[in-house]
Design brief:
By secondary structure, this protein is α+β, with helices and mostly antiparallel strands. Helix content is 36%, strand content 16%. It has 17 helices and 22 strands. α8 runs parallel beside α11, α9 crosses α11 and α11 packs antiparallel against α12.
Length: 604
C-alpha cells in the first residue's frame, strides 16, 4: 500500500450555484418536486409505516386479492427524500420543508429500538427476521440511505437529531457484524451501507465506521458464500435467480471477492454503489490494488456497457448488465438510479486526481440519462430511459412499486454544488462548468458559463491577498478548437489527462476565459453493437439529441441523414422569463436547444 493524499471535493457549503441552467433545476426540485414526492409517499404509506402499525400501511391491492403493504425499501425512499430536502435547506431558509423533515425524523426516533435498530418493514411485518435474510430484505440498504441523509442533514443545518439516530444504528451494526465470536460475517444483498459508512466516517472520524465499511467490502464474495449459509439457517431451499448468467450471486456482485472482479456484472445500481464505496476505501487506505480494481471495472463499464446517453444496464430482467455490447435501444433499461450511481462512481474516481476519462462520463450521464428522468413540470419521472420508443413510453407521476428514482434524482440535484470541483494542497480543479461562486481559503472564484449550450466560460478571482496556486480546468473530449487566456493573454492548451493546469500568483480581478468550440458531432457505434448498425447519433457539447415525432412526423424510421449534412443550432435561454415564472408553470421553464439541418430526407 502507498498512501495518497487524494483530491477532496470542495464542500457544498463553499459552493453556491449562481443563476443559470442548474440553479433553475434546483429551484424546481426544491419548490415543486420535494413536496410532490412527499405527498406521494404519504399517500402510499411510507410515512405512516414508521408508526409500526400494520393498520397504517396503505400499500396497494393487487390481483388475486394479494395485498402489498410496507415495502422492504420504503425507509430508503424516505431517507433519500430527507437528504434531498436537507440539501435544499442548505440553499436557504424553507420553514415548511424544515418542519416536514423534523416530523419524519421524529417518527424515525420513535420507531428506533433501544439497541439502535430501525426498519419499518421488518419491525412491522417480520419482527423475527432481523438480519436473517441480508440477501433479499434490504435492511442494510435502508440503513445506508438513512445514514447518508443524516450526514447531509447535519452538514446543512447543524442539527444532530437525525445524525444521532444514524450513529446509534451504525453502532448497532458495528456490534452485529464482523469476524469476532458471535458476530455475523454477512454483507448486504444491495450495496449502499458501505458508501454511507465511508461518509459517516469522514464526518465523525470514528474509525469503527471505516472498519465496518472495509469489512463489508472485503467479506463480499468469499467462499463459502454467506448467502448460501443464511439460506440454510432460515430453511430456505428456493433456487435464487437460476436464470442469471454465470453465478446467481453475480447479480449482486457477490460471486467473487472484490479484488478479483474485473468485469462489471449484475444489477447496475448495486454495482455502482459498491464500486463508489470501493474507490473511497482505496483512497482512504492508500490501497493501490483496490484502486486498480476500480480502474479496471470503470474501463470495462465505459468500453463495453455504456449507452451514448450515459445510461447503463440494458436488461429489465436483472435491471442491469448482460454481455459486452448488448445495448438495445427500444428495450434499453438505463435506469435513472443506475446513471446516478455511475455519476457517484466517476466522482469518487476523480479523487485520485483530475482525469477527463471520469469527468466527461459524469457530465454525459448528468445532462442526458439522469436529467431525462424528471419532467419539466418537476412532478413526472422516468424509471427506465430507453433510447427509442414507439410513442408508448411516458413519464409517470409516481412509479409506485419501486419509487427509488425520484428522491434519488432530487438528492443529487439539491446537492449538485458538492460535485463541481475538488482541491489538493494549492490546486483547485474544475470538473463541471456550472454557474457558481466558490469560496477558497483566502480567495473566492466566480464561474460563469454558457454550458450546456455554449462553450464559453469565465472564472474571476476575488480576494485581497496575492497567493500562488494552480487552477486546473477540464477540457472536454467533445471540444473542437480550444482557447484559454488569463487576463486576455493566451495560455497554451497543454493538457495532462485532459486538464489544463495554470499556475501563477493570482490577484484580485484576474480573469480566466475558456472557449471550447461545440461542433456538432456524428457518432457511430462499434460493429459489435448490432442494434446500432446503420445508425448515427448526433451530439453537440455534452448533449445528445434525438429525432422526435413532434418535429418530424411519425415516420422516423424512413428518415436518413446525409453524409455531408451541415448543422445549425439555436438555443432558448429563457432565463429572464424563467426567473419571473412560477415553478413548473410551463414547459419553457428550463433552457432547451434544437438542431436543424436541411440534409435530413426520407428514404428514397
Amino acid at each position: 500500500m502507498s498512501s495518497q493524499p487524494g483530491w477532496q471535493p470542495v464542500n457544498r457549503s463553499r459552493v453556491q450555484l449562481a443563476e443559470g441552467f442548474w440553479k433553475q433545476w434546483r429551484k424546481l426540485v426544491g419548490e415543486v418536486t420535494l413536496s410532490h414526492e412527499l405527498n406521494q409517499m404519504r399517500h402510499q404509506g411510507h410515512v405512516d409505516a414508521l408508526d409500526l402499525d400494520q393498520r397504517m400501511h396503505r400499500g396497494r391491492k393487487l390481483e388475486h386479492d394479494w395485498y402489498w403493504g410496507g415495502s422492504i425499501f420504503w425507509d430508503s425512499d424516505l431517507a433519500k427524500w430527507l437528504e434531498a430536502a436537507a440539501g435544499w435547506l442548505e440553499c436557504g431558509e424553507d420553514k415548511g420543508i424544515d418542519r416536514q423533515i423534523d416530523e419524519i425524523v421524529a417518527k424515525f426516533q420513535k420507531a428506533q429500538l433501544p439497541d439502535g435498530y430501525v426498519n419499518s418493514h421488518i419491525l412491522t411485518w417480520r419482527p423475527n427476521h432481523r438480519f436473517k435474510n441480508l440477501r433479499d430484505l434490504h435492511e442494510l440498504y435502508c440503513a445506508g440511505h438513512l445514514i447518508e441523509a443524516a450526514v447531509v442533514h447535519n452538514e446543512a443545518t447543524g442539527k444532530t437529531n437525525l445524525l444521532e439516530i444514524a450513529c446509534r444504528f451504525a453502532d448497532h451494526l458495528c456490534s452485529k457484524f464482523g469476524t469476532a465470536q458471535g458476530q455475523l460475517r454477512g454483507y448486504p444483498g444491495h450495496p449502499e451501507i458501505e458508501l454511507a459508512l465511508m461518509r459517516l466516517y469522514q464526518l465523525t472520524r470514528e474509525t469503527r465506521y471505516l472498519d465496518l465499511a472495509r469489512f463489508f467490502i472485503e467479506e463480499r464474495g468469499r467462499t463459502p458464500n454467506y448467502f448460501d449459509e443464511e439460506a440454510v439457517r432460515r430453511v430456505d431451499d428456493r433456487p435464487f435467480r437460476p436464470q442469471h448468467p454465470g453465478s446467481p450471486y453475480a447479480y449482486m456482485q457477490a460471486h467473487e471477492p472484490i479484488r478479483q472482479q474485473r468485469k462489471v456484472v449484475g444489477h447496475a445500481v448495486r454495482a455502482m454503489y459498491l464500486y463508489s464505496a470501493v474507490a473511497e476505501l482505496a483512497l482512504e487506505l492508500g490501497d493501490d490494488e483496490l484502486r486498480r480494481t476500480c480502474q479496471d471495472l470503470w474501463t470495462d463499464l465505459v468500453s463495453t456497457k455504456l449507452y451514448i446517453t450515459g445510461g447503463i444496464g440494458s436488461d429489465a430482467e436483472n435491471e442491469g448488465f448482460t454481455s459486452d455490447y448488448d445495448l438495445p435501444n427500444e428495450k434499453a433499461y438505463a435506469e435513472t438510479c443506475a446513471s446516478i450511481g455511475l455519476f457517484f462512481f466517476g466522482h469518487r474516481m476523480l479523487r485520485f486526481g483530475p482525469d477527463r476519462m471520469y469527468s466527461d462520463i459524469t457530465e454525459l450521464a448528468l445532462y442526458n440519462n439522469i436529467l431525462s428522468g424528471i419532467g419539466l413540470d418537476g412532478k413526472t419521472f422516468f424509471y427506465d430511459n430507453p433510447l427509442s420508443s414507439r410513442g408508448d413510453h411516458h413519464r409517470v407521476a409516481w412509479p409506485w412499486w419501486c419509487p427509488c428514482c425520484p428522491p434519488n434524482l432530487a438528492r443529487l440535484i439539491t446537492s449538485l454544488s458538492g460535485y463541481l470541483c475538488s482541491e489538493n494542497a494549492n490546486r483547485l480543479a474544475f470538473h463541471q462548468y456550472i454557474n457558481s461562486d466558490i469560496q477558497l481559503r483566502d480567495n473566492s472564484l466566480q464561474l460563469r458559463t454558457g454550458f450546456p449550450f455554449d462553450g464559453k466560460s469565465e472564472i474571476t478571482i476575488r480576494g485581497p491577498e496575492l497567493r500562488e496556486f494552480t487552477l486546473v480546468f477540464r477540457v472536454p473530449g467533445w471540444a473542437g478548437d480550444v482557447k484559454a487566456a488569463v487576463n486576455g493573454e493566451t495560455v497554451p492548451p497543454t493538457l495532462d489527462r485532459g486538464y489544463l493546469h495554470t499556475t501563477r500568483s493570482w490577484k484580485d480581478g484576474d480573469r480566466v476565459t475558456l472557449d471550447f468550440e461545440m461542433p456538432v458531432r456524428k457518432h457511430y457505434a462499434r460493429y459489435e453493437v448490432s442494434s446500432d448498425r446503420g445508425r448515427v447519433a448526433i451530439t453537440r457539447g455534452p448533449l445528445v439529441y434525438c429525432l422526435e415525432t413532434a418535429d418530424n412526423g411519425d415516420r422516423l424510421d424512413e428518415i436518413v441523414l446525409s453524409t455531408d449534412a451541415v448543422f445549425e443550432h439555436s438555443t432558448f435561454s429563457g432565463i429572464d422569463e424563467l426567473s419571473r415564472s412560477e415553478p413548473g408553470s410551463h414547459s419553457a421553464r428550463i433552457p432547451v436547444a434544437t438542431l436543424s439541418t436541411a440534409a435530413i430526407r426520407e428514404k428514397s
